[in-house]
Design a protein that fits this description.
This protein has two domains: 84 residues, no CATH class; 79 residues, Arc Repressor Mutant, subunit A (Orthogonal Bundle), CATH 1.10.10. The longest helix has 38 residues. α1 packs across α2 and α5 packs across α7. About 3% of the residues have low confidence. By secondary structure, it is mainly α. It has eight helices and two strands. Helix content is 66%, strand content 4%.
Length: 187
Amino acid sequence: MDNRISFDDIFKQNKRRIHYQIHKMHINDPQQEFFQEGLVAMWRAYETYQPDKGPMATYFNYAIRNRLIDLMRKENRYQDIQEEAIQEHKTQLTDGNHHRRAEKAHPLANDPHIPIDNPDIWKQIKSRLTANQWKWLYYHVMEDMSYREIAITENTTVDAVKGWGRQAKKKLRDPDFQKSIDWDEPL
C-alpha cells in the first residue's frame, strides 16, 4: 500500500511555491503560462521524489525554479529569432539598391547613370567582374532578386551574396574602372 499523500493535497499545500518562484524571478505571467509550467514541474517532482535524498519542499523549489528558467530561455530564443527575422526583412527592403514606393521595393535599374540599354558596356563590365560579382549584378540589379533568392539559387549564404554585392559596387564606383570600359557617366 502506498502511504504517499495525494497530489491534490500536495498541490493545495504547495501552490504558493509556484507563485513565490514566479514573483522572485520578476516574471509577468498574465496568461498563467509560467504557473502551468511550475505546476508540471511540481507534478514531476512529486512523481520522482525520493525521501532519502532530502526534503520534498527543497526538491519542489529546485524543480519549479529550473523549469521556469528553461521556459524563460525558450521564450527569449523565440523572441530573438523573431527580431532577427524582422531585421532581415527590413534589410531586404532598405538594402540601398531599391527605392520604395508604397510597400513594394523597386530596383534602381532605371537609374540614368547605369547604361542598361548598351550591350557592349555590359559585356565589358562582365569581363572585368568576377563570376560571383557578375551573378550579384545580374540577379540583383537586372532580375530584381533579393539577396535571399540569390543565395538559394546559387546554393550559398546571404552573407556571401552581400559580399559579392559590396565588391561589385566598389568596382563599379571606381573612376578608373569606369574609364576602362568607356563609361561616360560616373555613378
